[in-house]
Design goal:
Blueprint lengths: L7 H8 L5 H13 L1 H20 L7 H13 L17 H4 L7 H4 L7 E2 L4 E5 L8 E7 L8 E3 L3 E7 L2 E3 L2 E3 L4 E4 L4 E2 L2 E2 L5 E7 L3 E3 L16
Antiparallel strand pairs: 1-2, 2-3, 3-11, 4-9, 4-12, 5-8, 5-11, 6-7, 6-10
C-alpha cells in the first residue's frame, strides 16, 4: 500500500508543466503506481482548463494564424523525450523490475553501475538535465547505506522491494521527499534488494569520519 505521495505543490507544478525534467520523470513514475495521485493530477488539469476557459481571448492577425497552421501541416511536432532505440535490449533482469515508462530513459544508453559501498550501487540516467542528477539506486537485500544528510532536495520513488530508515518503512510506489539537513540511513528488507529512482538537487554528505572518503560527493546532472 502506497502511503507517501508528492505534495500538492509538486503535483500542481507538474500539472502546469512548470517542472524540470528529472523531477517530472520521478512524479510520472510515481503515477504509474498511484491511482490517488493520478486522480489528483486529472483534477488539477480540469481546474486549469476551467481557468483557461474563463480567460479573455486575444486577437491575432490572419497572417500569424495562417503561418502557424502551415507549420503544423509541414513539420512534425518534436517529442519531448526520444524513445529508446528499438535495437537496444535492456537487461532482462532489470527490465522486469522497472515500470515500463522508465524503459525509454534507461534504454537511451547502457547503465553504468558504480559501487558506493558494500551494499549500495548507483547507475546515473542521462536525460539532458542540467539542474538535477537522475539515477537508479540499488541496496542489496539486508544491506544498509551509510548515514548521510542532504545539501539539497532529494526525491525518491521506490520501484522494487522496500527499505526503511529512522522515519518509517517504504514500499513500491512510495514517493519520498528529503529536504536539506535531513539525516537518515536507509536499509533494504532482508529478503529482497531494493531499487529506487532518485532525483538529487545537490550532493549528499556522509556523517562521521567516513566523510573524508565520500563517494557520494560526486554530483553529475546529465
Amino acid at each position: 500500500m502506497i502511503t507517501n505521495h508528492p505534495t500538492t505543490e509538486l503535483l500542481t507544478e507538474y500539472a502546469t508543466g512548470a517542472m524540470s525534467l528529472a523531477p517530472l520523470i520521478s512524479i510520472t513514475t510515481h503515477l504509474q503506481f498511484c491511482e490517488h495521485c493520478r486522480d489528483a493530477v486529472a483534477g488539477l488539469n480540469a481546474l486549469g482548463g476551467e481557468f483557461l476557459g474563463e480567460c479573455e481571448g486575444t486577437a491575432i492577425s490572419d497572417r500569424l494564424l495562417a503561418d502557424t497552421l502551415d507549420r503544423l501541416d509541414e513539420e512534425p511536432l518534436p517529442e519531448t523525450i526520444e524513445a529508446a532505440p528499438a535495437s537496444f535490449a535492456i537487461d532482462a533482469a532489470l527490465e522486469e523490475q522497472l515500470p515500463a515508462y522508465l524503459h525509454k530513459f534507461v534504454g537511451r544508453s547502457p547503465l553504468n553501475w558504480r559501487s558506493l559501498s558494500s551494499s549500495l550501487s548507483v547507475a546515473p540516467i542521462s536525460v539532458g538535465e542540467t539542474a538535477y542528477e537522475l539515477a537508479l539506486h540499488k541496496i542489496d537485500a539486508g544491506g544498509t547505506t551509510p548515514s548521510h544528510d542532504h545539501r539539497g532536495m532529494e526525491l525518491t520513488v521506490v520501484l522494487k522491494g522496500s527499505f526503511s530508515d529512522e522515519h518509517g518503512v517504504y514500499h513500491e510506489g512510495d514517493f519520498l521527499i528529503r529536504e536539506p539537513g535531513h539525516v537518515h540511513r536507509p536499509a533494504a528488507a532482508q529478503n529482497q534488494a531494493c531499487i529506487c529512482l532518485s532525483v538529487l538537487e545537490a550532493p549528499i554528505k556522509l556523517q562521521g569520519l567516513k566523510r573524508v572518503l565520500n563517494p557520494f560527493m560526486q554530483f553529475n546532472p546529465s
